[in-house]
Amino acid sequence: MVRRFACDWLLSGMLLAVVAAAVPAAAEVTAERSDSRVVIRIDGQPFAEYCTHSGSKPIVWPILGPTGKAMTRFWPMKDVPGEKHDHPHHRSLWFTHGSVNGMDFWAEPGQKGSKPGKVGSTVHREFVKVAGGKQAQVVTRNDWIGPEGKKYLEDERSLTFGVEGKVRWIDFDIVLKASNGPVLFGDTKEGAFGVRVAETMKVDAKLGGRIVNSAGLVDKDAWGKKASWVDYQGPVDGKKVGIAILNHPSSFRYPTYWHVRTYGLFAANPFGLHDFTNEKTKDGSYTLPAGKSIKLSYRLLFHTGDEREGRVAEIYAAYAKLAK
Questions:
Q1: pLDDT per residue over 41-71, tens digit each?
Q2: End-to-end CA distance of the chain
Q3: Are 210 and 203 in contact (CB under 8 A)?
Q4: Chain centre distance of CA 117
């Protein structure tokens, strides 16, 4: 009897060892901070960098997808062959808006077509938290400063970086607070949570790029429409990949409108309305009372293949259930 129990115990131990070996260990996501940036790595391999200042705002660049290749445009941070030099304010991944109490935070000072004396900057104030583990988190506070030096509002943004199988992801949650009087977010298509996809991914490159949203609308038909998520897919270094942006149901004015273009701009905009609907009598502007705040929440997926291989709808269903 003792020998039988010993054998049973040994067999159970062997089975547990086999099961444990079959389950991949959780990746380690690290966050290495310097004065001006945080470098994110997955098991030692580069994923993304949070930069406190690029042009007139904080950005995330570069962003390397599951194939190890950059999935957002290099320019204007770096000049590489084959990239067009249009829209210098489209810097990889960012959050701004084109009309804040009459000031433009979407464009950049001195940019062609911008209005002199009307272009503001989003200024990094401090890191609140930088931590790694099974996920990495970067929390910052930022001030929206006009050209005359006046503070228009502030934000606290939390970026969480993770990986699940072949999908790398970033959760982007931002709280906008009217800390210096009421804030009017004007109705304009120029906003707000933006990504500029890699040059080879854009639809206009005619290399297989494709836009599809949660309602099944494709390419130009997805522009200016409301949707729970949008996926922008195309080739990078010969392999098909995609970037999906998911809008959480708790987010202000969910589901958002999408300013997603075939030339590579990919933005969620809850304040644009008359441009998207082509109904000039409609007004998507919003006044945030003094001392009050609103929260916007998104998840970015960096995946291989199309939206089906990337499990975008499946991941969205789980994401939508998270408390925010």
A1: 999 999 999 999 999 999 999 999 999 999 9
A2: 55
A3: yes
A4: 29
pLDDT digits (tens, 9 = 90+) for 121-177: 999 999 999 999 999 999 999 999 999 999 999 999 999 999 999 999 999 999 999
pTM equals 0.92
- Determine the length of the chain: 324
Q: Are the C-beta atoms of residues 60 and 48 closer than 8 Å to each other?
A: yes
Instruction: Give Rg (Cα) of the chain.
Output: 22
34, 76, 125, 159 alpha-carbon torsion, rounded to 10°? -70
- HSE, CB side, 13 Å, CA atoms: give it for residue 59: 25
Overall number of domains in the chain = 1
CATH number where 131 lies: 2.70.98
Is residue 299 within 8 A of residue 319, CB to CB? The reply is yes
CA 125 to chain CA centroid, Å, is 20
Instruction: List the beta strands (DSSP E) in 166-305.
Output: 167-177, 183-185, 191-196, 210-213, 229-236, 239-247, 257-260, 265-269, 286-288, 293-304
* The one-letter amino acid at 183: V
Domain of residue 225 covers 2-320
Q: How far apart are CA 78 and CA 44, in angstroms?
A: 23
Residue 31 to residue 39: CA distance in whole angstroms: 6
The CA distance from 76 to 86, in Å, is 9
**CA–CA gap between residue 308 and residue 202 (Å, rounded):** 19
**Do 185 and 271 meet the contact criterion of CB atoms below 8 Å apart?**
yes
Scored b (16 or more CB within 10 A) or e, 264-281 reads bbbbbbbbbbbbbeeeee
State CA 97 to chain mean position distance: 15
Give all strands of the β-sheet with 136-145 in edge-to-edge order. 121-131, 136-145, 151-164, 167-177, 293-304, 239-247, 229-236, 210-213
